[in-house]
């Protein structure tokens, strides 16, 4: 039986609620159990991937460095909606670099983040078996 494809949709800012951290934890657990995991970041969820986050002023733990572990768990399909970035004055260069090593390409380091239009993201969503919103 083929494994199901899981898409985790992240819509919330990284701090001020438990959604972002809980999503990341569930993704890592699923990937550890070899789920086929894809991530999508839309709306304020794009802030979860910003470089150089510092949450000390709000007294919240900065868990953003944990995203770098995704490649080690074979999570390399990370989609960021272009329109959500643009509405917030952001570009891909504002996002932390997330990569994975392709064993089929002599362990070449490849980019995990794919900035896509909302229409392209809709196609990705259509291909999934399970959709989890955070």
Give a brief outline of the structure.
This protein is α/β, with parallel strands linked by helices and 134 residues long. The protein has helices at residues 19-32, 82-87, 118-126; strands at residues 5-10, 36-41, 78-81, 99-102, 108-111, 113-116, 130-133. The chain has one domain (5-133): DsrEFH-like (Hypothetical Protein Ychn, Chain: A, 3-Layer(aba) Sandwich).
Structural features, described:
With 134 residues, this protein is of the alpha/beta class. It has one domain: 3-Layer(aba) Sandwich (Hypothetical Protein Ychn, Chain: A), CATH 3.40.1260. Helices cover 22% and strands 24% of the residues. The protein has helices spanning 19-32, 82-87, 118-126, and strands at residues 5-10, 36-41, 78-81, 99-102, 108-111, 113-116, 130-133. The chain has a five-stranded parallel beta sheet. A two-stranded antiparallel sheet has the order 4-5. The protein is globular, with a radius of gyration of 14 Å.
Question: Mean of residue pLDDT?
Answer: 93
Structural class: alpha/beta
Low-pLDDT runs of 5+ residues are: none
CATH superfamily: DsrEFH-like
The shape, in one word, is: globular
